[in-house]
Design brief:
The chain is α/β, with parallel strands linked by helices. It is built from 18 helices and 16 strands.
Length: 516
């Protein structure tokens, strides 16, 4: 095999991100150097459906082979395809409808629209069981804290993707719903016993038929002798996933530029260690320099190390099988949408109906219904800045209700400590008044829990709207809560209709009530 052929073959081991929205000189250089098997698209690459279709077509024409194009199109706040596309609800919003068919409807629409622009691989669904409310990185990206709900809804989500001709990926192996550190920032540690993992966290991976698992960056103290991310661990990737769980599909790593790995290893060190331990595809989503160094390291080791060569050749067989499966799914898919039908009225309406049915009322007071909302004196928005989520796509529509109630929102930034004087002003302003309070994971901060609890105690009426994780409605003294499971524009439209009494809320909580 010549050098050029070898570089192309080993490129299949790499999932990379690129920059910009067109095939510029920088992207030509990246693609020519790495020759990636998989290209991931982020919001930074996407303007609209026409541009992204042309971008993908241009890449295919530039390369003398077709890579897989993948995306994180989970729904809810992790939505890369926006303008001109149908916007899906979050996983937890889907399960809040109590109708498992909605998982299929949502993912099948997403798949058909992805296929139409040339995307053939969705890094979804999230099958983490959100068993720890303090887990800020999963939350509404999970279907539930109940493994049976996760399995039922995620199974239909996978079926909808596959019927639409798009590959699925179960993430984040081995399950990080129980941790409370975000692997984007640092390495979480799980002290759960292996027996517990097998009886709960791993059930979605074992019971849902998907060709790809995504190992993430977490340390399992009771299953690993060495403290390192499972994404680099032979104990987990080979001994456990392959030999014990008998997973024969493809293992695709979570991004190696995340803090859970990057805080401890250079990317090229992580790549070599991960591939040697049994990972099939390594992910480097941002830096061309790190992509290039890693590719060179793999090429050099492959040439001189027979043991490494054998491991890599086995991975390449699995990757080639994934490409074959992708082609089969495309052939079996019943419909290939033309661009004009992407984001059509019918699809958008179906998504909106599902979101309408997901909005959930929490009424602990036993009093009569508090909807429609009337005579509101104040709107308080306790906002978290985008960078607190460590997820690229977060939309803000802060003042969407202000014109309807003719009230200016009071916006308070939860990323900063709130001065005592401001707290006093908030409590005084809300006292004996009718207040709408919008929050995003306020329950994770004792300061916010105390403030909102005191506001509710002093208010004539306080309605708390949990825009992200639903646990905010369990803040002490909250009598009236609304869970939206996200804050995309279509979610806020459903919320507005419910607040004004145009539709009745029918959603039900897919998680257990929890003390905060």
């Amino acid at each position: 095999m010549g050098k050029e052929d070898l570089e192309k073959v080993l490129g299949k081991l790499f999932l990379i991100g690129i920059s910009g929205t067109s095939l510029n000189e920088e992207n030509r250089m990246v693609l020519n150097s790495i020759k990636p098997g998989v290209i991931i698209l982020f919001s930074r690459n996407i303007k609209d459906k026409f541009q992204i279709k042309k971008f993908i077509d241009d890449i295919k024409n530039f390369l003398d082979y077709e890579p897989l194009f993948c995306i994180d199109q989970e729904g809810g706040m992790v939505t890369r395809l926006n303008k001109g596309f149908s916007i899906a609800p979050s996983a937890m919003a889907i399960s809040a409808t109590s109708n498992v068919k909605n998982a299929y409807i949502v993912s099948n629409i997403l798949a058909k629209e992805m296929r139409s622009v040339g995307i053939d691989f969705n890094l979804a669904p999230v099958v983490d069981i959100n068993s720890n409310p303090k887990n800020s990185v999963i939350g509404i990206r999970s279907f539930s804290d109940d493994e049976s709900i996760v399995i039922n809804y995620a199974s239909e989500y996978v079926r909808g993707l596959h019927d639409g001709g798009v590959l699925s990926c179960l993430k984040h192996f081995p399950g990080i719903g129980s941790v409370d550190i975000d692997p984007h920032l640092d390495l979480p540690q799980s002290d759960l016993e292996k027996k517990y993992f097998l009886s709960k966290e791993l059930l979605p991976f074992l019971k849902i038929d998907s060709p790809v698992w995504m190992p993430t960056h977490v340390y399992l103290s009771n299953m690993q002798k060495k403290k390192e991310p499972v994404s680099l661990s032979k104990e987990i990737l080979t001994d456990f996933a392959r030999n014990e769980l008998n997973f024969q599909g493809v293992l695709v790593a979570d991004d190696f530029e995340m803090g859970g790995v990057a805080n401890f290893y250079s990317v090229e060190q992580a790549v070599i260690k991960s591939l040697t331990s049994g990972m099939d595809i390594v992910s480097i989503c941002h830096s061309f320099e790190k992509q290039l160094k890693s590719k060179k390291a793999v090429l050099e080791l492959y040439k001189k190390d027979a043991k490494f060569r054998k491991i890599i050749n086995t991975s390449l067989e699995r990757i080639n099988n994934l490409f074959k499966l992708s082609n089969k799914l495309k052939e079996k898919s019943k419909e290939n949408l033309c661009l004009d039908k992407v984001g059509n009225i019918e699809s958008i309406s179906l998504m909106q109906e599902i979101i309408d049915k997901s909005i959930t009322i929490f009424n602990s007071s036993g009093e009569k219904d508090f909807l429609p909302v009337k005579n509101i004196n104040n709107i308080f928005y306790f906002i978290r800045e985008n960078n607190s989520y460590n997820i690229e796509d977060v939309q803000k529509n802060i003042d969407f209700l202000s014109p309807e109630f003719n009230i200016q929102s009071n916006i308070i930034n939860m990323n900063k400590k709130i001065h005592e004087e401001i707290k006093k002003e908030i409590l005084e302003k809300s006292k004996e008044k009718n207040n709408l309070v919008f929050s995003e994971n306020a329950y994770l901060s004792k300061e916010m829990v105390d403030l909102i609890s005191n506001m509710s105690f002093n208010s004539k009426l306080l309605i708390l709207i949990a825009l992200r994780n639903p646990y905010d409605v369990f803040i002490p003294n909250i009598k009236h809560g609304i869970c939206t499971y996200g804050f995309n524009k279509n979610v806020l439209l459903s919320l507005s209709k419910i607040l004004k009494g145009k539709i009745k809320p029918t959603g039900s909580l897919p998680i257990k009530p929890t003390e905060v």
